[in-house]
Design brief:
Elements (H helix, E strand, L loop, with lengths): L17 E9 L2 H10 L10 H6 L9 H16 L3 E12 L8 E13 L5 E11 L5 E12 L37 H4 L13 E9 L2 H10 L21 H11 L1 H4 L4 E9 L9 E13 L5 E11 L18 E12 L1
Antiparallel strand pairs: 1-3, 2-5, 2-7, 3-4, 4-5, 6-8, 7-10, 8-9, 9-10
Helix pairs in contact: 1-5
Length: 342
């Protein structure tokens, strides 16, 4: 008998299972300060109460990715403690802004399983929801993870693959209550580029780069209470601790400010792939491609669909080779919707 938790293995997941994750967490201005210390995050709506109030909100929310990381971190001990890799995302929606003082908890439902042909690992699909203290769903998303088997002789479960949307429609997106860009100050926001200034197919080089340090990654992963062994334990991955994929997402999003300063709020996540592993010492750069644009049902608020690509080699506009596989310099391929003044 043991009182410790060694985490779930692939054979422990069954479609339909609902997992309530420990431990609820109250987030405050400290999370914002640490987030802005770890990443060069400068979007005005998340930096200034006065700017957010001019946009119709009750002060400045915490960055959308703070909510994502906190909700995600809760799931790790139950979903990805024994993961080989986090493989992808789909159907992500930010539904209610998270403010300092909110308490977040997470819950996941297993919606798919498929054992790999090697018989040593399998892929688990979960739909995760993050709730605040009012039991409002603030965030939901699907992710799939490759997980080790604990018992190699365990029989393979019947494969169940969820039918997921490849792209969220603008009708799926939720504009926060009260949000308005009628009094939007482009000077304070940092750039003059409006929704109407971007063209589908346009590629934006975000120019800047940041070298990821081991110490900063460790602080970030602990901040989000992410306990995945691949991020902490060198005996688990002797070739180097794998940088948490969310750390790369936040770094790339922060770098995208240069060229997309007015893409203020992330409201949808269509898909994402951590294309290649990232280790300490890697210099991350980023570029974006405009994939689509749509007007929301709120006057003056446009939705812009963006592909955000993080690279380790500074290449721009290059994603996959002739074989259809990601190029070795691509770290992240993220497809998301953001809100921007029309």
């Amino acid at each position: 008998m043991t009182k410790t938790n060694s985490g779930r293995f692939f054979e422990d997941y069954k479609v339909g299972d609902v997992i309530r994750h420990a431990v609820p967490r109250t987030v405050a201005e400290g999370e914002r300060a640490l987030y802005h210390a770890l990443y060069p995050a400068r979007h005005a709506l998340y930096s200034s109460d006065a700017f957010a109030a001019d946009c119709g909100l009750d002060g400045s929310p915490l960055d959308d990715l703070i909510a994502f990381h906190v909700v995600f971190g809760k799931t790790v001990p139950d979903v990805s403690l024994n993961a080989v890799a986090n493989l992808g995302y789909a159907e992500g929606r930010w539904l209610v802004p998270v403010y300092p003082g909110d308490t977040l908890r997470s819950e996941s439902q297993v919606i798919g399983v498929k054992e790999n042909s090697n018989g040593k690992t399998g892929v688990v699909y979960v739909r995760t929801r993050g709730f605040n203290q009012h039991d409002e769903v603030v965030l939901e998303y699907v992710r799939w993870v490759m997980v080790r088997k604990g018992n190699l002789d365990a029989p393979a479960p019947e494969a169940v693959l969820p039918d997921l949307k490849k792209v969220l429609s603008v009708e799926d997106l939720v504009v926060p209550e009260g949000l308005t860009f009628d009094d939007y100050d482009f000077g304070l926001a940092g750039e003059a580029h409006r929704w109407c200034d971007y063209e589908i197919g346009e590629v934006i080089d975000h120019v800047d780069g940041v070298t990821i340090e081991e110490a900063e990654h460790m602080i970030a992963t602990r901040l989000w209470q992410n306990t995945a062994k691949v991020h902490f334990d060198l005996t688990f991955r002797p070739e180097g601790r794998l940088i948490y994929g969310g750390h790369v997402i936040s770094m790339a999003r922060a770098l995208s400010f240069n060229g997309l300063a007015n893409a203020q709020m992330i409201v949808g996540l269509n898909g994402g792939a951590h294309a290649n592993p990232c280790f300490a010492g890697t210099t991350v750069k980023a570029w974006s491609e405009v994939l689509d644009k749509a007007e929301t049902d709120v006057p003056g608020v446009g939705a812009i669909r963006l592909r955000l690509v993080a690279t380790s080699d500074g290449s721009v506009g290059q994603l996959k080779g002739e074989d259809g596989k990601y190029l070795p310099g691509v770290l992240l391929d993220l497809d998301y919707w953001a809100l921007m003044p029309i």
